[in-house]
Target: Adenylyltransferase and sulfurtransferase MOCS3 homolog
Amino acid sequence: MDDFSWTAGVSRDDAQRYSRQILVNDFGVKAQKSLLSSKVLIIGAGGLGCPVGIYLAGAGIGTIGIVDYDTVSIDNLHRQIAHKESEVGKRKTDSLKNSILALNSRICVEIHEGTFDSKSAMEIVKNYDIVCDCSDNVATRYLVNDVCVILNKTLVSGSALRWDGQLSVYHFGEDCPCYRCLFPNPPNPENVTNCSEGGVLGPIVGIIGSLQALEVLKILGMKESSYAGKMFLFNGRDGKTRTIGLRKRDKNCAVCGDSPTVIKPIDYVLFCGAGAHDKVENLKILADSERISVEEYRDLRRIEKPILLDTRPNLEFEIAHLPEAKNITLSEVKNLEAEKIAQTLEATNNRDIFVICHRGNDSQRAVEILRDKFANHKIRDIIGGYDKWAKNINQDFPIY
Model:
């Protein structure tokens, strides 16, 4: 036997790169070799997808797939840590791929550009061992879940909003529920808030995304999961965590039950009543006679000081508002008596009342409510709200 022979569990390069995790008790060489040969799909290259992608790349996952339809914007950068100022306007898939390869050039990164929909989902998911749902909309969550069950793939799902984050692992083992077991029917789209409306703190998505990556490493490397059949809840405001047990797989579930009725992807936009994206929908629920453009409102306020009701939350009102605006939130519009609203607005002599919000959705809802409370006033919403005002009238007005 010559002096240069040895028995290797991993290569010299892999030993150097991954030694600190190989040395971890219960992980070791076997788990590392499993990671190197595994393929993981990340759906959503945003706040959750960025830490998932970076940590999986660092750990040595052999192939990472990325699905996203969007481009990098400046308001992404506080939380989507794989993207940079120089990437603004570029595709998120390309940006995340560049960051992954800058960290670990030895792995394979596959890009799936475009919306993850019923037509493409099965073909994409079938090539991966495990899926990370890092999306930010209900339609995609149901689609990802159903496809993972149909193709027998484990799903690691995370979400975050404001101060809160949550994580669960679906379809891992005989009794583990899927997403549909817990939520057989989608929520009313009007009651769903995403981070573009409700906000989110960057470290919240960082924590949840990191935990998603950790679950992937345990599942692929050790065939174990801490959150299969459980849900991890994190409140960053109070610094508290909680893990709750979930009910077992529902034998009557439409997709993973004993007699499933969903055996292929359905129309999830129709099912959920909302698009498969995290963008705010532009509603049109009023007649044209009850609406006014930002240009028309600009011309009107040059002649007189109008009565302007701003329905946004107080925090948004503090960001910026027109000087004549009075802040009465949509919730207050619903609950306050007409007399109190009139007093706040100084609405006298049957003058017209104009309503504005962030993008022109809540203002329309407010007009519907105010019709009944102010029968003697003409009430109109401002189309597109402050977002349209900033784009069309005053480019210095803050956009958020």
About this structure: The chain has two domains: 12-272, 288-392. The chain is about 35% helix and 15% strand.
